[in-house]
Design goal:
Subcellular location: Cytoplasm
Keywords: Cytoplasm, FAD, Flavoprotein, Heme biosynthesis, Oxidoreductase
Strand content: 15-25%
GO molecular function, one term: oxygen-dependent protoporphyrinogen oxidase activity
CATH architecture of the largest domain: 3-Layer(bba) Sandwich
Number of domains: 3
EC number: 1.3.3.15
CATH class of the largest domain: Alpha Beta
Main location: cytoplasm
Distance between the termini: 31 Å
Radius of gyration: 24 Å
Shape: globular
């Protein structure tokens, strides 16, 4: 064994970050800017975590997250990383669609559009309207009690807005964001802000109005004039894809990022620090640090803390990650029923179509395909379809013959194509453990995790299984933790 030149018992590192995804990199970059000594260790041979951008033959695509909402924290990171001029924003007016009863129907984005939408029947619209203004029964019943007085997403939205809204709008949205099951996801955990509106005003509309009034009465955070100007509803990326962000952060961090460093064990010391042992290409390496931040998925974190916090480990293992395949297909424009102008489409589970949804990538961010082509990013699998793993076992090395790609193609053929044509298969990326599920009992699991880790004040968690899976949530958490660590290391 050997001590690295970065941290020894006499000179422990300030902060050791485990994982070089967007959470770990943005945390480390922020700490480095504040003159905090930091080291990032990643078990894989690449940075970025789920962010994976591909390029070939004039096409550019994403195999993980596809875009981001430009939150203030994320914009601050983009500017500091030197990527402001590379950021691109999609047209926020692009419509979103739901495929129902054999055709694409635009999702209503305003009250007048909601009144006129064919997605809901008039009884369904009336039911949703009455529920929205507060004509809602309280959550009662034996099942509610058995669930620990916690509602699923399906129960919450059925109670407030009715069966039609839940089945035709909420379910496809949940499939697109969480790849989740509305009958398992916790409304309070997965839709925290919306669920809280009932307690504020009795109904969703009244709660939203009162929440907005309360927010306006509070001292307003001044707008940072150095940040790029964005508008609500816009989605962002970069000229060469999302991978530009982790690459820029890693370049700024330099040799503070170590790849192929697999954490073997972590041990608290009597010096209010931690000893971390790594398996590396150069042999075993040991690092001592005052603070250790775990940005790893819950199932990896469970292994790391099992020896020192078995209850936390057990709760972490209970967080489910269903399999999701990202399938990137390109089609000639001439094969499509109509020009694609929109964000994409989602598919209710009741339609009998296996694909969860499709992003019209070349419409969202133009310039990512050769002339005459359309690029479609598709998602299949999720909590309601774990059998996607069986298709993967039958997969062949030839992408064009991949069973998952062909299953998605058959769905695209039904929804978007006017003639039979085989797609150009650019990628089939099966994430066997994709998005953490905020299922019933999630808040209790988190409470158990944090209580069990409380005796280890220098050990921190910063990962997307806590309070938000979006890119902006990861950056926000990292910056909040950076504020805490900066105070503790001064």
């Amino acid at each position: 064994m050997s001590f690295t030149d970065l941290a020894t018992p006499s000179h422990p590192l300030d902060t050791l970050v485990i994982g070089a995804g967007i959470s770990g990199l943005s945390l480390a970059f922020t700490l480095q800017q504040r003159q905090t000594q930091v080291l990032v260790c990643e078990s894989q041979n690449r940075i970025g975590g789920n962010i994976t951008t591909g390029q070939a033959d004039g096409f550019l695509w994403e195999e993980g997250p596809n875009s981001f909402a430009p939150t203030p924290a994320l914009l601050r990171l983009i500017v500091d990383a030197g990527l402001e001029k590379d950021m691109i924003l999609a047209d926020r007016r692009l419509p979103r669609f739901v495929y129902r009863q054999g055709r694409l129907q635009a999702i209503p984005m305003s009250p007048p559009a909601a009144i006129g939408t064919p997605l809901l029947s008039w009884p369904g619209k009336l039911r949703a309207g009455l529920g929205a203004i507060g004509f809602v029964r309280p959550p009662l019943g034996e099942q509610f009690s058995q669930q620990g007085s916690e509602e699923t997403v399906a129960q919450f939205f059925q109670r407030h807005l009715g069966e039609e809204v839940m089945e035709r709008l909420v379910t496809p949205f949940v499939s697109g964001v969480y790849a989740g099951d509305v009958n398992q996801l916790s409304a309070a955990a997965a839709f925290r802000r919306i669920a809280q509106l009932e307690g504020v005003g009795g109904g969703l509309v009244a709660g939203a109005i009162l929440s907005r009034m309360k927010a306006k009465s509070q001292p307003q955070v001044p707008v940072d004039p150095s940040l790029p100007k964005t508008r609500p509803g816009e989605l962002g990326s970069f000229q060469q894809g999302l991978q530009m962000l982790p690459q820029a952060l890693a370049a700024k961090l330099g040799d503070a990022v170590r790849l192929n460093w697999r954490l073997l064990q972590i041990t608290p010391t009597t010096r209010q620090s931690y000893i971390a042992e790594f398996g590396t290409p150069e042999g075993t390496q040991i690092v001592e640090a005052r603070h250790v931040v775990l940005t790893t998925p819950a199932y990896i974190t469970a292994e790391i803390v099992e020896a020192i916090a078995p209850l936390a480990s057990q709760a972490l293992r209970a967080i489910e990650y269903p399999p999701v395949a990202n399938v990137v297909l390109a089609y000639p424009e001439s094969a499509l029923k109509q020009p694609l102008k929109g964000f994409g489409h989602l598919i209710p589970r009741s339609e009998g179509i296996r694909t969860l949804g499709t992003i019209w990538s070349s419409s969202l961010f133009p310039g990512r395909v050769p002339p005459g082509w359309q690029l479609l990013t598709n998602y299949i699998g999720g909590a309601t379809d774990p059998g996607i793993l069986d298709l993967d076992r039958d997969s062949r090395s030839n992408l064009d013959g991949n069973p998952i790609a062909q299953a998605v193609h058959q769905d695209i053929r039904r929804i978007l194509l006017q003639q039979e044509v085989q797609p150009k298969v650019l990628a089939v990326h099966l994430w066997k453990r994709a998005i953490p599920q905020y299922n019933l009992g999630h808040h209790q699991r988190l409470q158990t995790i944090f209580q069990s880790l409380a005796p280890f004040p220098g050990l921190h968690i910063c990962s997307n299984y806590t309070d938000g899976v979006a890119l902006g949530d990861c950056v926000r958490r990292a910056q909040e933790l950076a504020d805490i660590l900066t105070q503790k290391t001064r």
